[in-house]
Amino acid sequence: MNLLFVCLGNICRSPLAESLFKFNLEKKGKLAFFKIDSCGTSNWHQGEKADHRTLKNAKENGVYITHLAKQITQNDVNQFDYLFVMDNENYKNVLQMFPESEKKLFLLTHFSKIKHNQIIPDPYFGTENDFQDVLNLLNIVTNELADFLIEKHCN
């Protein structure tokens, strides 16, 4: 199963979602069943490490991010089974760039017990607490997503 996490710049939310999803899958012994990556709808930060606040916050919570930012491509849309976006703007952007992605494109919260239309807020212009809040939310959502996909595809 191939999953792609998508946000705007690929330096805050999506690399953190990618790393947390891997972290949660590893705890469940199912990491080998998945290919996981992340990207952004923009190319603003291409080749850069994740935002220093995301890296710091993740590390303080035992999660390590090694991803370098990149922009979504047609190859990504073709290769990945699921495209998980963080908010409605990301959804609209991906759909506008790649209309054929509609059947595999979901808000990340779609399969969560949290409101399925809730967005993952962008902490970029926020405080340190906003980065922790996003990590807490992503940890819940990626853990629930892991459970859902393991049940659906690994049993």
Detailed description of the structure:
The protein is α/β, with parallel strands linked by helices and 155 residues long. A 4-stranded parallel sheet has the order 2-1-3-4, sandwiched between helices. The chain starts with a strand and ends with a helix. It has a single domain, classed as Rossmann fold. It contains 5 helices and 4 strands; from the N terminus they run E-H-E-H-H-E-H-E-H. The longest helix is centred in the last third of the chain and has 26 residues, at 128-153. The radius of gyration is 14 Å and the shape is globular.
Widest sheet: strand ordering: 2-1-3-4
CATH topology call: Rossmann fold
Largest sheet report = 4 strands, parallel
Nearest-integer average pLDDT: 95
| SSE sequence, one letter per element | EHEHHEHEH
- Rough shape? globular
Q: What is the share of helical residues?
A: 40-55%
CATH architecture classification: 3-Layer(aba) Sandwich
Radius of gyration, in Å, reads 14 Å
Number of helices: 5
Structural class: alpha/beta
Beta strand count: 4
Which range does the strand content fall in? 5-15%
| CATH class label | Alpha Beta
CATH superfamily grouping: Response regulator
User: Which blocks of ≥5 consecutive residues have pLDDT under 50?
Assistant: none
Number of domains: 1
Strand and helix layout:
Blueprint: E1 2-7, H1 13-27, E2 35-40, H2 52-60, H3 74-79, E3 82-85, H4 88-97, E4 105-107, H5 128-153
Parallel strand pairs: 1-2, 1-3, 3-4
